[in-house]
């Protein structure tokens, strides 16, 4: 029986290993983590992450060929294939601070593997890491090898949160990079045979190590760039009277462009896009490619601009001040169907509104109050981000309340900001909401999910990203 151990029971490691266990009943999969609460949660009825379909997969395999444990060293020692899926945040201090990936967790995992291994291992990079990390890991392992053979593979994960299980069941592709030596090729084949249990052969791509590592950063950079491109267009649409949804539809029909990932929004979030682009920027700078670095940096700048623009719209529309006014925030997660708030645009929008002294009442079906408070008080590292500069002051914290439904959030509010595209926001009783709000009542739809015309019939003043402006908004121009 092949034994797989995955170090790191997070958003990537947990779902990926659960699906491998489900699809490969003959493989034993153990997911290990240093965090006791995380492992306890994985072994309970309330999993530590919300992901549609995940509960079901875990229930089918847990205790059979899928295990969660904090006994990291034991399971690493016993495994044939070790996936490393630990976190790689952006460095906050020292060399490369604000851009480079912090590989502390990776390095300590690698040193631990070298310490406890007694048999040959295939070590698989699963977390997104800078190009050439595999080489560094290889050096740590071989310099401490005690005669053991290590093969390093890069097998980046492309799943998106909220659709992780479907993405894992039907991946567009699985990418495996390895050394071009006989040992490297053998390791590639071993990992390939795991995926081949459910992924068609022509979707499993094998490359050299560096191509696999760079492809992951490149894929995320291209995806984020599409969103910044459509968001940049959304600003121009508002200025000219074009409708960004019509523009997206029209350009998406060009098969060279394609229809997906063209939804204008208040900005992209999530743990990957910004981090990976910053990483790419750093790698370009280190390799003497400042023009390339500037090109990719602009994707983040446009994303910051979009969030600032949204806040300015809100404030400008409400007579240039939101001071003391209650504003309902619907949605805090970085996208629907996840409770994840990492880099969510809601953080910057809320901070922006609090900066103008608004009172916020926030509702998200999957994010709890502790998480929101942590996010809003966190002192984010500033890179070139003026809007990340200030943590929230203690007075601001008091101006935020978290509620458990949209109607309570909107009661007596002057305006509503929709920041996550949760399906339930589409079917709210907006007449009821309107009746209980201050007038004039505003809706600022950061995800273009409500029917703006219907809301206008009720009496709302509506702002939708990249759509022809309400006459009211034309009279109250926002300068970003
Ligand atoms: C992303 C990649 O899609 C995935 O392949 C990679 O493995 C990890 O990073 P994720 O961050 O989970 O996945 O979600 P994704 O669906 O890509 O959305 C990222 C952000 O972009 C979200 O804030 C989302 O709301 C936003 N977005 C997405 C838009 O604003 N418009 C779109 O058209 C699509
Ligand atoms: C383009 C658009 O494709 C077309 O829809 C529009 O109506 C007019 O502009 P065209 O300029 O004739 O058409 O040729 P196109 O095939 O788009 O190539 C433009 C340039 O991009 C060429 O120099 C081509 O060599 C280059 N190119 C194209 C690349 O360098 N790489 C590619 O992958 C594709
Ligand atoms: P991702 O979104 O990439 O999956 P997460 O932050 O959700 O990232 O998960 C990473 C997990 O890795 C965390 O649960 C963390 O406790 C775990 N981790 C970090 N370093 C180690 C280590 N040396 N050994 C075991 N687990 C680790």
UniProtKB/TrEMBL annotation:
Pathway: Nucleotide-sugar biosynthesis; UDP-alpha-D-glucuronate biosynthesis; UDP-alpha-D-glucuronate from UDP-alpha-D-glucose: step 1/1. Gene3D superfamilies: Cytochrome c1, transmembrane anchor, C-terminal, NAD(P)-binding Rossmann-like Domain. It catalyses: UDP-alpha-D-glucose + 2 NAD(+) + H2O = UDP-alpha-D-glucuronate + 2 NADH + 3 H(+). InterPro entries: 6-PGluconate_DH-like_C_sf, NAD(P)-bd_dom_sf, UDP-Glc/GDP-Man, UDP-Glc/GDP-Man_DH_C, UDP-Glc/GDP-Man_DH_C_sf, UDP-Glc/GDP-Man_DH_dimer, UDP-Glc/GDP-Man_DH_N, UDPglc_DH_euk. The active site is at 272 (nucleophile). Residues 328-452 form the UDP-glucose/GDP-mannose dehydrogenase C-terminal domain. Keywords: NAD, Oxidoreductase. GO terms for biological process: glycosaminoglycan biosynthetic process; UDP-glucuronate biosynthetic process. Its EC number is 1.1.1.22. GO terms for molecular function: NAD binding; UDP-glucose 6-dehydrogenase activity. NAD(+) binds at residues 8-13, 33, 38, 86-90, 127-128, 161, 272-275, 342. Pfam families: UDPG_MGDP_dh (PF00984), UDPG_MGDP_dh_C (PF03720), UDPG_MGDP_dh_N (PF03721). GO terms for cellular component: nucleus. Belongs to the UDP-glucose/GDP-mannose dehydrogenase family. This is UDP-glucose 6-dehydrogenase. It comes from Aquilegia coerulea.
